Every structure is written in structure tokens, then in C-alpha cells.
Inverse folding.
């Protein structure tokens, strides 16, 4: 049994003799490496890194593709990557903390906290914040579409494009719900539902979501290499060059001590890509 951590986002080829079980004599899984190489071969995913920890605690790192599409540098095994949908866990915890503190109710409607904000249009006319509860957003039974119109062409065309949460929500409101009004509610994974939850958390806490997550979760449990960078271009995987170029280093490598808002980053010309 092995624990696997994967980040897709930089490979030096590994030349080794292959054993009959598909593993090299150095303990590396050649089939796994080949699978990663195949995933980046068409260019839609520039690079990947994967860490495999076995039952004895031994870690084997794998990389594929490039860490920086401009310099073609290798993927660093300690590279910083966006955690994408894993962000939902942080958002959900923040919401549950606020509920535990009596600042919001899970069975209250979205309308209570964001009056007039959620009104579907066109095919999404049935989407209405007056009929969606916080609990339904949490468990993906709100009926909101999981489709991201902004990513219709994939991630690469918009990788450096900043989308405000409200902008993403507005793009989702014309989308048809996952079930008709006369049907029973059903589970359907919804990215847009969690965007809406983030807006609720911001409104209730009175702080930007990145600050809510940083102060309530990241700082509290000591995630020193985790940063809520909600907005701006994704960090490069080339962490070494980012560290050399950033005037804020090493503070930006200690996210528990620094949260840069998007406006502040724009005013800080020397801030590295990882800070944005």
C-alpha cells in the first residue's frame, strides 16, 4: 500500500534497467513514469509531479514535462502548485466553523446572506438563491451546474487570466440546473456551488475568502507551505528561480505570515509569480 500525491501543472529522462514487474532496479515504477509522460505528451498539461510514499515511509518522486513553459526547466519535486478542487475542503471547513459559531445556519437559504445575488437567467432561470440552502451547496445537491464556462477551451488559454468569484458566478447563472424543478434533488458535483459558498463565507465573515481560510485554517493548523492565493496567475513550478527573483522571499515562502491581496501584488513589481 502506498500513499500518492499528484500535482499536474516539469522531466529529466530516467534511464534504468527494467525488472519483470515493471519497476526499475532503483525502485522506480517505470509504468507509472510512462503514464505520466503520456499525460503531458500533447502539451495540454505542461508538467506533473507525483510523490509516492510506501508503507515504510520511503518517498519516491516522479516528474514529467516542464516546470516552466518559457525556460523549459525541469519540474522541481518541491514545486508549488495550485490545489484546484482541494480548495473545496478549505471552503467547507470555513463554512462549518462559521455555522458552529452561530454566524450562519446550514439550513438557511443563500438569499439570507446574499440577497438578490442568485437569480438564474435563460436556461438557468430555475436557479434561485431563495430555494437553495447552505447545506445543499455543501453536499452538491443545490442543482447548480458544475460546468465552468470560463474553461470551455481548457486551462491553458486562461492560465494567466484573473476571474473574480462574482464573475464566475454570473457566467454560471445562465446554465441549466442539474435537475428539473419537479424532480427530487440529487447529487451532482458543482464547482459553481462552491464558488457561491466562498461568497457566502466572505459576506458572513466580512473578510476576503483568502484571509478567512488563512486565519481560520492555514495558520491554525500550521500549514507553513500552503497559501490561499485566490486570484492572479498560477505560480510557476520552478520554485528555485521564483525564490531568487522575489524581493519578499523568504516571507512569501511562509504563507502563515503573509497574505498578499491582488491589489497589493499589482503595486509590488518585484513580487514573484508564486506570490501572485
Amino acid at each position: 500500500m502506498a500513499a500518492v500525491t499528484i500535482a499536474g501543472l516539469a522531466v529529466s529522462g530516467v534511464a534504468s534497467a527494467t525488472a519483470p514487474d515493471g519497476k526499475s532496479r532503483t525502485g522506480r515504477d517505470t509504468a507509472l513514469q510512462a503514464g505520466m509522460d503520456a499525460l503531458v505528451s500533447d502539451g495540454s498539461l505542461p508538467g506533473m509531479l507525483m510523490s509516492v510514499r510506501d508503507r515504510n515511509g520511503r518517498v519516491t518522486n516522479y516528474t514529467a514535462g516542464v516546470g516552466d513553459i518559457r525556460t523549459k526547466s525541469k519540474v522541481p519535486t518541491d514545486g508549488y502548485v495550485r490545489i484546484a478542487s482541494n480548495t473545496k475542503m478549505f471552503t467547507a471547513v470555513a463554512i462549518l466553523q462559521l455555522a458552529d459559531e452561530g454566524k450562519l445556519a446550514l439550513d438557511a437559504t443563500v438569499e439570507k446572506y446574499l440577497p438578490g445575488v442568485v437569480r438564474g437567467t435563460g436556461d438557468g432561470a430555475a436557479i434561485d438563491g431563495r430555494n437553495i440552502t447552505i447545506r445543499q451547496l455543501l453536499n452538491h445537491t443545490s442543482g447548480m451546474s458544475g460546468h465552468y464556462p470560463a474553461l470551455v477551451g481548457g486551462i491553458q488559454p486562461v492560465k494567466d487570466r484573473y476571474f473574480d468569484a462574482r464573475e464566475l458566478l454570473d457566467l454560471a447563472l445562465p446554465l441549466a440546473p442539474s435537475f428539473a424543478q419537479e424532480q427530487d434533488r440529487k447529487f451532482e458535483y458543482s464547482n459553481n456551488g462552491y464558488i457561491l459558498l466562498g461568497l457566502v463565507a466572505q459576506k458572513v465573515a466580512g473578510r476576503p475568502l483568502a484571509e478567512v481560510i488563512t486565519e481560520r485554517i492555514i495558520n491554525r493548523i500550521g500549514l507553513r507551505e500552503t497559501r490561499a492565493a485566490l486570484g492572479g496567475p498560477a505560480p510557476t513550478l520552478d520554485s528555485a528561480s521564483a525564490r531568487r527573483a522575489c524581493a519578499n522571499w523568504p516571507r512569501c515562502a511562509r504563507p502563515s505570515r503573509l497574505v498578499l491581496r491582488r491589489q497589493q501584488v499589482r503595486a509590488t513589481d518585484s513580487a514573484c509569480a508564486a506570490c501572485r
